[in-house]
């Protein structure tokens, strides 16, 4: 499996982790037992989602730029 597929797979699993963290945050807010760590629980997967998402967003443009450099044009 190459790096691009790894990033896609990691991005998918991070989205599941982020969804679970948001649901846990909502449950904590409804139960009125919210603490700071529950609120911050979603930030780690969200940050990693941002990084992997930006990589996946730039990937098609980077392959075009590399391809144009090889073909001379």
TrEMBL record:
Domain of life, per lineage: Bacteria
UniProt-recorded name of the protein: PepSY domain-containing protein
TM annotation in the entry: 12-30, 36-58
Membrane keyword on record: yes
Keywords recorded for this protein, A-Z: Membrane, Transmembrane, Transmembrane helix
């Amino acid at each position: 499996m190459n790096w691009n597929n790894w990033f896609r797979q990691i991005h998918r699993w991070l989205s599941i982790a982020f969804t679970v963290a948001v649901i846990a945050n909502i449950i904590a807010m409804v139960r009125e037992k919210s603490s700071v760590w529950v609120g911050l629980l979603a930030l780690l997967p969200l940050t990693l989602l941002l990084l992997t998402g930006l990589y996946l967003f730039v990937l098609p443009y980077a392959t075009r730029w590399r391809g144009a450099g090889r073909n001379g044009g």
